[in-house]
Amino acid sequence: MSAQSGSTAIVSLGMSCQSSRQIRTHVDTFSGLLDQTFEPTRHFFDGLISPISGLADLFCDGFQLFTRDSIRPGPGCPTWMPYGIRFLHHFREADMPPDIDRFFEREHSKFGYLREKFIGLSEVERVIFVISNSQNNLSDVAFETEMACIKFNQSQLERLMKAVDNFLDRQCEYLIVSHPDRHGGVLDENIHVMKADESEWTGDKTQWRALFQSYFV
Q: How far is CA 190 from CA 34, 130, 134, in A?
């Protein structure tokens, strides 16, 4: 989930599910900090594993919706090529293996709606994108799906932010959160390195709450 009020949207941009989880967890925190009524809302990248370079390519290419031919069965899970975006939780029923052909129309319709909703962010007064690679099991997912790199890279992040701003024709804010072993040397004011925690994928809500409080105060 992402979160939105009448004038502000706080939206997950991947690269893993932890961004979405922590936004949803802190909806009430946002309401109190910003004196606005936030509600959880779904957005396109909430539950996707999205490599930074692939995301940048997607927006540079105009963020067209996937076609059947562009969804491949692997490696490891349905993958949107050529962008390498992994659908770990889609094209399937719960606890069942993926079946792209069976569920393609359902997912195409859902993500088509979410794409239009993403485009609508161009009209929101303030948009903050949250990007994180802090999810502990992201390294396992990367191994299983043959992702080449989950570390951040300064030039790739800058290219992604520029591509999203150009696509929406506006300037957005970017809150970038990293694992201690994955910041890739990117240590400027835009990136926040979490201390290691014991969760599998959800993250430490205490650290995230402190981060949101410092960002929005």
A: 20, 11, 15
